[in-house]
Amino acid sequence: MTDSSDMKAHMGTYNVFTKLFRWGLLAVVIIVVAVVWMIS
Predict the structure, then answer these.
(1) What are phi and psi of 9, to 5 degrees?
(2) pTM, 2 dp
(3) What domain range is 28 assigned to?
(4) How many domains would you assign to the chain?
């Protein structure tokens, strides 16, 4: 099985990834909305 320190490191990395993914997704949505608004 995995060591508890490995699991803590994994959870830390996963949390950073999900935060970056959320902010990236928000940025893409804002850019898409702005481009669609400018085109129409």
Answers:
(1) -65, -40
(2) 0.71
(3) 1-40
(4) 1
